[in-house]
Design goal:
Elements: E1 6-12, E2 36-37, E3 56-57, E4 100-101, E5 108-113, H1 138-150, H2 161-171, H3 180-222, H4 225-244, E6 252-253, H5 260-273, E7 278-284, E8 291-297, E9 299-300, E10 303-304, E11 325-333, H6 337-348, E12 355-357, E13 366-374, H7 378-381, E14 398-406, E15 417-425, H8 433-446, H9 464-472, H10 476-484, H11 492-504, H12 507-513, H13 519-531, H14 536-541, H15 545-553, H16 555-566, E16 579-581, E17 597-599
Parallel strand pairs: 5-13
Antiparallel strand pairs: 1-15, 2-3, 4-15, 5-15, 6-8, 7-8, 9-10, 11-13, 11-14, 12-13, 16-17
Biased composition (Gly residues): 13-33, 48-63
Domain TRUD: 447-633
Keywords: Isomerase, tRNA processing
């Protein structure tokens, strides 16, 4: 069979899934359930007093990665059929043809489209703007400092010291006197340097006292005088601990708060006024429904601690006239978006939470998307392109570029869609060029039904949306069974572990047999071991929240696909009972409010086309269409 390839470019909000393509890469791993211990920890609170906290966890199973041995990697990924999730209605009634999508990861190119469709993410510039000459004159350096960090602006020379002397020699006699401005600036700069060297110690102490005073005043305004007094005592204890070289770690907890805005304001305050002494983070409160801002000393045994969020904690002050966020394009190949973010954070010694983006992109492909980072200089992020582990740019798993500073971060949904370029391979030889051209032309001229792709529903014989439906219906026994039941395509050792548990209900033995990368299964088993074999709800609650939500979220794409299958697209008109939006397409991300929705009836059906029809996103108070689509569950 000849390998005939066709390339087509399209735009859309969701990418479809292809049947072809490669498999997943393996995960690395180390020891399994190794021991961990903890030491004592001091604690401060607003009422004063200290407390000890210690203990730890130990034991377990260590050594080599046993789950990489024979029998753990011979599984085969499976997928649901398109018809099972509602992917069965075509926009155009023309003959189709088969082909393979993503046979090579370079066959699938994705570029993010900004809100409003104004820009498409093309990585065109890997180079930083040319930096300022290191051999600058004292006049230029002084002017730059005043302009960048104090917000002052005035004319200044950009010539280097050598260039200045060369031009002066060519245009002025050797005995010419310096200009009045040069004389004043020279005298001022020399005096400032002398004053700084003489008083920098006193000035630093004075500045520190001023910052502490301002910090405590603002904390008192946010909370009360008792909170400010307790915080002041904590800061004093930090200073005494540094002088006495004590190894006891100090901790301060603010009052519990359920307001994210309040906690954000407090974190901003700590970063601006207290970043020389403390670092802050957010931890769960005692009641579970509130969170607490925690402060710890910046230094541990004389060294800066590493277990902190690096956002806004850089040593250098952020320039006065620079927006707070760095925006750049991330180009990646054959790599998950989340994996790329974690890899970047590791290379730059930052927390992955420093980076934000509008949405994840496919792993198997070449993708470009915008990313923002809070108060990170472009020179820092550009270091990614100088990684010595790769010989040239072609070997890099991702690159960054097109740097600019912006005032707002990206959040999920801050995009108009994606532009796709794809190659279809292995088209049967009996399919004519005319047939392919007709299909592609119809697709380009009249669009297509934009379903969620099969990748949304997982790669197991029991799809994740089936588990999600059980969770939404609060049938926790069924959800537990679905997670632990044997599955078609499982690796032989994993299938053996599942079957052993179904036969003997021996949780301890199952935990020894299940590999740690099956996070949901291990979490459920640990929950059953801790709470009892009949405590299905508590076992499900033991699954990490984000992973638990993945199952429930996959039920939404199923509902959307089923609703799309019920929309009348044959005649390109809305149907009686459909929801329609009054508004034109949004120029920026916004919600469609209930008062913007009208129902299509026999009286107004001529006023709307299929482009006006909107589908509901299911929720507890969603306005549903008044036709058969409302019955989709």
């Amino acid at each position: 069979m000849a390998d005939r390839s066709y390339q087509h470019r399209s735009g859309g909000r969701h990418g479809g899934g292809g049947r072809g393509g490669g498999g997943r890469g393996g995960r690395g791993g180390g020891g399994f359930r190794g021991g961990r211990d903890g030491g004592g920890r001091g604690r401060h609170n607003r009422d004063g007093g200290g407390g000890g906290r210690g203990g730890g966890r130990g034991g377990g199973r260590g050594g080599d990665s046993w789950f990489k041995q024979e029998g753990y990697n011979d599984g085969v990924a499976s997928s649901v059929d398109e018809a099972d999730v509602g992917i069965k209605v075509f926009r155009n009634d023309i003959p189709g043809f088969n082909g393979i999508v993503k046979q090579r990861f370079s066959d699938f190119v994705v570029r993010e489209v900004s809100v409003g469709g104004r820009d498409i993410a093309h990585l065109t510039d890997l180079e930083l703007p040319k930096g300022k000459s290191k051999n600058r004159s004292i006049h230029t350096m002084l002017a730059d400092a005043l302009e960048g960090y104090l917000g002052l602006s005035f004319a200044k020379s950009t010539a280097t010291k050598d260039a200045h002397h060369a031009s002066s020699a060519a245009t002025k006699p050797s005995n010419a006197a310096p200009s009045g401005l040069e004389t004043v600036v020279d005298a001022l700069s020399k005096r400032l340097v002398a004053m700084y060297l003489a008083t920098r110690g006193d000035a630093k102490v004075t500045q520190a006292k001023k910052k502490v005073k301002t910090l405590l005043a603002k904390v008192e305004a946010m909370y009360d005088a008792d909170e400010a007094a307790a915080l002041g005592a904590f800061l004093s204890d930090i200073q005494n601990a540094e002088q006495d070289k004590t190894e006891l770690e100090l901790v301060y907890h603010f009052q519990p708060s359920s307001s994210k805005d309040e906690r954000t304001a407090l974190h901003t305050l700590i970063r601006e006024l207290g970043n020389e002494w403390v670092v802050g983070d957010t931890v769960a409160g005692p009641s579970g429904d509130q969170q607490i801002v925690r402060l710890r000393p910046l230094k541990v045994k004389g060294n800066k601690r590493k277990d902190v969020d690096q956002r806004g904690s850089k040593d250098l002050p952020w320039p006065h006239n620079r927006p707070n966020y760095l925006k750049f394009i991330l180009f990646k190949k054959n790599k998950e978006t989340v994996d790329a973010m974690q890899h970047m954070a590791k290379l730059l010694h930052m927390n992955p939470g420093t980076f934000s983006y509008a949405g994840t992109k496919d792993k198997r492909g070449l993708t470009s998307q915008w990313v923002t980072a809070y108060r990170v200089p472009r020179e820092t992020v550009a270091k990614i392109n100088a990684n010595k582990n790769f010989k040239d740019f072609d070997a890099y798993p991702f690159l960054v570029g097109n740097f600019q500073y912006v005032s707002e971060p990206l959040v999920l949904g801050d995009l108009d869609g994606n532009q796709f370029s794809m190659v279809l391979r292995n088209i049967p030889s009996d399919v004519s060029d005319a047939q392919v051209d007709a299909a592609v032309s119809a697709w380009a001229s009249s669009g297509f039904v934009n379903y969620f792709g099969l990748q949304r529903f997982g790669t197991k014989s029991i799809p994740s949306h089936v588990v999600g439906r059980a969770l939404l219906r609060k049938d926790y026994k069924l959800a537990t069974d679905l997670i632990l039941l044997p599955k078609v395509g499982d690796a032989s050792k994993i299938k053996e572990a599942r079957q052993h548990f179904q036969t003997y209900k021996d949780v301890s033995a199952a935990l020894r047999m299940f590999p740690p990368y099956l996070i949901a299964e291990v979490a459920v088993l640990e929950g059953l071991q801790r709470h009892g074999l009949d405590e299905f709800h508590r076992a499900i609650q033991n699954i990490p929240p984000k992973l638990r939500m993945v199952n429930t979220y996959t039920h939404l794409p199923l509902l959307v696909c089923l609703m799309l299958a019920g929309v009348q697209v044959e005649d390109w008109e809305g149907a009686d009972g459909d929801d329609a939006s009054r508004d034109q397409p949004a120029k920026k991300r916004q919600r469609v409010m209930e008062h913007d929705i009208v129902f299509i009836t026999e009286a107004n059906i001529g006023e709307y086309s299929i482009e006006d029809v909107v589908l509901p996103v299911h929720g507890y108070n969603t306005l549903l269409p008044k036709n058969e689509i409302a019955a989709v569950r």
